[in-house]
Design goal:
154 residues, alpha+beta, 6-stranded antiparallel β-sheet, 35% helix
């Protein structure tokens, strides 16, 4: 019986898998779809993993895995809109304590949102939700930021 990998090892493995999945594929939507599936099935205790892309002053739903989601989120609203407007990762241990949280899925308890930053602009966000309170930690933040770097081809 093998011991499950620690989080940094798990994220290194996911980063290698992601790099292989998207290598040579220029289509952002196809790559986002594969990344959402990889993350959703590669991490435990998630009920949603996917993308929102910047369209004007809002974020619009992109490829994801999980239950149906909010389609449009204004910048500065909810966890996703806050991460986009700040241009930095937002980790929320309990979304019920986050001012202005948007409850797309009432089962979600914790959330991690990493902005996609290209040429100094936020072009979207990677959003992970969990039904478990305090599911995400610093290892998850660092790991997901690394996955976004791979996704963006940097």
């Amino acid at each position: 019986m093998s011991v499950p990998p620690n989080k940094p090892e798990l994220y290194r493995d996911l980063a290698r898998q992601l790099a292989a999945l998207i290598e040579g594929e220029p289509d952002r939507i196809a790559n986002a779809a594969n990344m959402a599936a990889l993350v959703y099935h590669g991490l435990s205790d998630l009920n949603w993993a996917g993308f929102y892309f910047t369209r004007g002053s809002e974020l619009v739903l992109g490829p994801f895995q999980g239950r149906p989601a909010c389609v449009r989120i204004p910048w500065g609203t909810g966890v996703c809109g806050t991460a986009a407007s700040r241009g930095e990762t937002v980790l929320v241990p309990d979304v019920h304590d986050f001012p202005g949280h948007i409850a797309c899925d009432p089962v979600s308890r914790s959330e991690l949102v990493v902005p996609l930053i290209e040429d100094g602009r936020v072009t979207g966000v990677l959003d992970l939700d969990s039904p478990r309170r305090a599911r995400f930690d610093e290892d998850d933040r660092l790991g997901c930021e690394r996955l976004v770097t791979v996704f963006l081809g940097r």
